[in-house]
Predict the structure.
Amino acid sequence: MALRIVFCGTPAFAVPSLQRLIAEPDFEIAGVITQPDRPRGRGQEIRSSPVKDAAVAAGIPVYQPAKIKSGEAYDYFKGLSPDAVVIIAYGQIISQRLIEIPRLGWINLHASLLPKYRGAAPINWAIANGEKLTGLTTMLIDAGLDTGPMLLKYQTGIGADETAPELTAQLADAGAPLIVETLRKLDRAEIAPTPQDNSQATFAPILKKDDGRIDWWLTAHKIYNRIRGLQPWPGASTTFRGKHCQIWGKPLKPVSAGGTPGIILPTQEDGLLVICGGSTVLRVEQVQLEGRNRVTDAEFMNGARIMPGEHFGT
């Protein structure tokens, strides 16, 4: 008999796992729960979530409660009688009475090697903090924030130039077979859930606009980690002549330079260079001033006509 599954998720990261579960003959997707349609993008058009789009395309019933803690949502889950609920980046806290409904529990796919990087943005903070390894953990959720007992793990390296969107896509694809393996082994009682060591926990909070502000006193390599990790939002940002701007770039090695961090060194040979902490140098490759298009460093220098001693930041 097929394992009866309810799937909870919202972003594109959850879609490969949903599609894999739909394709496997030993799973029955009884329903998909996702966040309500909301305004998205610059035009603020009302759009459905990637998970909803995938479910509709596969002919799976979709439920979009404003609050999953509501009595209506509880009755919906009870009525579906799931063996397990798979939850991936859904976006709402699950109440204890909902957790108790499926006999196998709620299985979460979390994008870190727990207990490190609990929270909403584990991929972004792992890159921004310069981690070399990351991965995925399946776990049984409890009433805490990513604190439940662990089931299976997948580990992978983080490339020296890998960005958050690139790593997100890789982990999304890797999560699909991990979810399938977890459900099958859990159903056959082949997994012993392992409690997390709370003393080793770190936190990956939801990203805020201010997280992208560049501290030029950091080394060029640390700034580059933040440029990679905080894509696509909030991005790595600073100010130039009092205006907000985003930058993209890479550290230059083994170039070093004396001077106050943030000072701009426009050159013909190496392009737009900025002094960073530790006498390191960042090569700025692209710039986007507020209200303008993203341009190359050469286009920026030609338009700005940078004067000696000018700087990014305050």
About this structure: Residues 152 and 182 are 7 Å apart (CA to CA). The chain has a mean pLDDT of 96. The first helix runs from residue 15 to 23.
